[in-house]
From TrEMBL, chains A, B:
GO terms for molecular function: pyridoxal phosphate binding; transaminase activity. This is Aminotransferase class I/classII large domain-containing protein. InterPro entries: Aminotransferase_I/II_large, DapL/ALD1, PyrdxlP-dep_Trfase, PyrdxlP-dep_Trfase_major, PyrdxlP-dep_Trfase_small. It holds the Pfam family Aminotran_1_2. Its cofactor is pyridoxal 5'-phosphate. Residues 77-442 form the Aminotransferase class I/classII large domain. It comes from the Eukaryota. Keywords: Aminotransferase, Pyridoxal phosphate, Transferase. GO terms for biological process: systemic acquired resistance, salicylic acid mediated signaling pathway. SUPFAM superfamilies: PLP-dependent transferases (SSF53383).
Amino acid sequence: MMLGFVGSGFLGQSVVSRVQVSSRKDARRNVRVTPRMDAEYRTGVKRNENFSKLQAGYLFPEIARRRNAYIEENPDKDIISLGIGDTTLPIPDHIRSGLQAGASKLGTKEGYSGYGAEQGSAGLRDKIASNIYSDRVKPEEVFVSDGAKCDIARLQMMFGPGTTSAVQDPSYPVYVDTSVMQGQTQLFNEGTSQFDGITYMRCDASNGFFPDLENTQRTDVIFFCSPNNPTGAAASKSQLEELVSFAKKNGSIIVYDAAYAPFVRSSDVPKSILEIEGAREVAIECNSFSKYAGFTGVRLGWVVVPNELKYSDGTKVRADFNRVMTTCFNGASNIAQSGGLACLDKEGLDEIEGLIDYYMKNAALLRTTMIDLGFDVYGGTDAPYVWVSFPGRSSWDVFSEILEKTQVVTIPGAGFGPGGDGFIRMSAFASKESCEEACERFRKMYG
Amino acid sequence: MMLGFVGSGFLGQSVVSRVQVSSRKDARRNVRVTPRMDAEYRTGVKRNENFSKLQAGYLFPEIARRRNAYIEENPDKDIISLGIGDTTLPIPDHIRSGLQAGASKLGTKEGYSGYGAEQGSAGLRDKIASNIYSDRVKPEEVFVSDGAKCDIARLQMMFGPGTTSAVQDPSYPVYVDTSVMQGQTQLFNEGTSQFDGITYMRCDASNGFFPDLENTQRTDVIFFCSPNNPTGAAASKSQLEELVSFAKKNGSIIVYDAAYAPFVRSSDVPKSILEIEGAREVAIECNSFSKYAGFTGVRLGWVVVPNELKYSDGTKVRADFNRVMTTCFNGASNIAQSGGLACLDKEGLDEIEGLIDYYMKNAALLRTTMIDLGFDVYGGTDAPYVWVSFPGRSSWDVFSEILEKTQVVTIPGAGFGPGGDGFIRMSAFASKESCEEACERFRKMYG
């Protein structure tokens, strides 16, 4: 029996589960075969100092921890989560059947497939290039992945410790955290609540949530997310032209996070950095099926690395990213890719539009409710996030207060950087009923 | 319409696809809004020098490239692949239905789930701990992933540039390549065909394919794969005790790749490093559903990081790996995890045994055929790889010769390191019929 029965386990009785204090010598080798163990044993391996720079844990598990702690203490209370941007609508039929077909074919001789190309199936790369980008990108420039968060980490692995990064402030925590992990930064500065060595580009109401690039120093890499998580701000065409021009002038690389692109409603708001002339020479675009097809758990995304993007020595960035994808990754799940193909059919695209409409109605409701209650509110028109101002207040305090008084989970803006303090992010991905109920509770609390 | 129709694409007509030579100034800002572009434009970002150290591409895409080139030139020839270790049997019913159910439930309100815990669903972590490890590991020590290759890269990201690594020679190329990418090494040494800064532990017939640890210098990390890819060697209990003892003596961390554990047939060959006393303090174990459930495309694996494993400063390695998994990863696909749960049911484990039996019969056939033909042959008894000796010959030459004369794709041992030269790896994952046909062709060529 290669693997054990349930109950006795794969390894039978042999696995040592507790540290045992025992030792004996193996006379043949004069080596302690069972070394004396003690509870304080440490290896001689030095911890990667970059990890000691990190502050606490990643943001969303911390939110979950506080939420779960509250639930434990208040088991009778009915929690509504407008916190993590997690989709809640079931996957619509056409897309779901693509996933299901992807699973069932693996049970057949004709349909079974093992390893796929790490960069994604040719069919899916083709379809992304044609159905998303109108053939204005080549399939070879498209790298299918298990999602944008993982791609950011892989891009950072590719850039390495020697590059400098700029992020929006506030921003999705992964850009900063992976920068720290890669050794691109110095220590966390308690005074500024920022990492020395990262350039933070403040985005707030005073600058229309677009950075003051004329007063921003050069960095190698610029992480830019639009429509923005967490502020909901959607950069206009001329703002993105300014960004591309800034990158060109400085010889920088923009990592453009377009994960919320399909939520754009306003005209003159591009859905891709590649709509901007010159972007091919300066930008990488990350995108994901998570937020618009409900694939947050399914895991499917992609990166576009244009052929024209080169390092200072002339090497194509695409070549090194290809090396990362083939060496550090083994492809997105074939089942997820089957779902991706269904997403990009006409029926799939229609289904996606239905999902997005639903969430944007939630966003509109949250937005108008908070505006009615007298708050300054941003976002929610081109993104599924509503960014509510609580001037002068600690956002973690407001988070706790809202949780305790209305049992609604939100995200404190400070979790996205000091520029987020004084704001609360509300996510539109909950059910319509939950959003309506949350708004009722807000009206009671603030009305 | 949020996303475009098929044909006009998501971005309509706006994406700029070709580098256009044009420029104009934006008088308002005195900045070139559409910069002059030229085909030679380079950013000012310095390429990560670690990538320039890498030699050629990752091994398996290179094999695929040569195979495809051969097919193009010889379209009438019937290629058999005993190359990449890719599973070919369809996924059996119980496991397949677990995958299918995981997909279909996403289409229902009750069954839909979005983001899962990055470390894996509690149910799957529990089941791995109990059904694979007989509860001798805790669920919190189990991290579910999208596979061992990705986990090695994440472990390397965690270790960072400041650690030294040892690998077996020959070995799975990912350990070396990720070591180079992380900056743990110096340059490739043309004379030795190895990277200066990595310790290579020769494994060959003269030492029974187990390293001479007494003459191995200390490194922080020791990558050890058993049963071994590519040699098929399966370390005995006393050999693994020696390895654990060596690690303890040196304060090193073993990264133990157990991806082929279920192929073990011999008694006194452990299936997990955690069977060895003392291992909890010195070892991390990687494993994968790829090779035994046919999940090479589905993507599911796990890592065990014992609580007792600590860096020199006392920090738990598990804490930093948890940080990597939550920050650089977003969980294995929920559909794949559903399949994993089915794998670990009694019916699933039985199905896995059936798959492994099938492949091991192939291995036995390949082994006995090559032995009959007069070759010294290793492996194939506890692993799905057969390691055939061609003393004094360049393995890339033998690879080409076998491909041209028998149309069978193998892997040249040198692809796994200089210690692999003079050997050819044959993988047992092809169909029974293909293996039989390949053996017929070998008999014709060498008989």
